[in-house]
Design goal:
single chain; mainly alpha; 2 domains
């Protein structure tokens, strides 16, 4: 599959991701009907967004500017192969 290059289609893809997320979260909240579930869902979404930002922006701009990641699997492979996984000191 070729890379997506049209700015209009890229924006449309982003909007569709937001619509899908709102739709899925809405269904979960309607089915659960509990404010604690809503709070935990919001916290989980926020935490995963921050982790994604960390994996791409923070690592590429502050830790290893020479490395560009293609996806989360690539990031995991980078950590594993370079011995950069957080390990406790012996």
């Amino acid at each position: 599959m070729a890379d997506l290059k049209s700015p209009t289609l890229i924006y449309l893809k982003g909007v569709l991701f937001v619509v899908l997320g709102v739709f899925a979260a809405g269904i979960l909240l309607v089915r659960a009907g509990d404010w604690q579930i809503a709070l935990l869902l919001g916290l989980a979404i926020w935490a995963f967004c921050r982790a994604y930002y960390f994996a791409f922006y923070v690592i590429e701009h502050y830790v290893d500017p020479g490395y560009k990641f293609a996806g989360l699997g690539d990031f995991a492979g980078y950590l594993w192969s370079k011995g950069r996984c957080v390990r406790p000191k012996s």
